Amino acid sequence: MRAPRRAHLEILARNGDADADAELYHGPRLPPLAAHVWGWWADIAQTRGGSGFGPNPLTRVEVRAWEADEGVALDPWERRAIYRLDAAWRLSQQPDPNEET
């Protein structure tokens, strides 16, 4: 099994690679035609609910309400991207099962 990209970036950053360090702490550069989706996701995510088990996923109702409030009509690919970003973010919030507490 291949190590995740983050593991490679961490090794490179420890060895002084400035590009790896920048990507670790600022994320990869977003494609210009899709960068707006990140901002929209961040805006919608501010209203997310949660439970004792962690943050809830964004719902279609929440996304549609955001669209109505902001006067934005998402294209289907933008909506799918927001849900994928949300799933990836929630996954990143889960504790590492290999890390001792």
Helices and strands in order:
Blueprint: H1 5-14, H2 18-26, H3 35-45, E1 50-51, E2 54-55, H4 60-70, H5 76-92
Antiparallel strand pairs: 1-2
Helix pairs in contact: 1-2, 3-5
User: Gap between N and C termini, in Å?
Assistant: 25 Å
The portion of residues forming beta strands comes to under 5%
Radius of gyration over C-alpha positions, nearest whole angstrom: 17 Å
* Secondary structure tally: strands: 2
Structural class: mainly alpha
Report the helical percentage.
Answer: 55-70%
What's the structural domain tally? Answer: 2
Succession of helices and strands: HHHEEHH
Q: How large is the count of helical segments?
A: 5
Low-confidence stretches: none
What would the average pLDDT be, to the nearest integer?
86
Task: Walk me through the structure.
With 101 residues, this protein is mostly helical. It folds into two domains: 1-30, no CATH class; 31-101. The chain is built from five helices and two strands. It has helices at residues 5-14, 18-26, 35-45, 60-70, 76-92, and strands spanning 50-51, 54-55. It has a two-stranded antiparallel ribbon with strand order 1-2. Strand 1 (50-51) and strand 2 (54-55) form a beta hairpin. Helix 3 packs across helix 5 (76-92). The protein is flat, with a radius of gyration of 17 Å. The chain starts with a helix and ends in a 9-residue tail after the last helix. The mean pLDDT is 86.
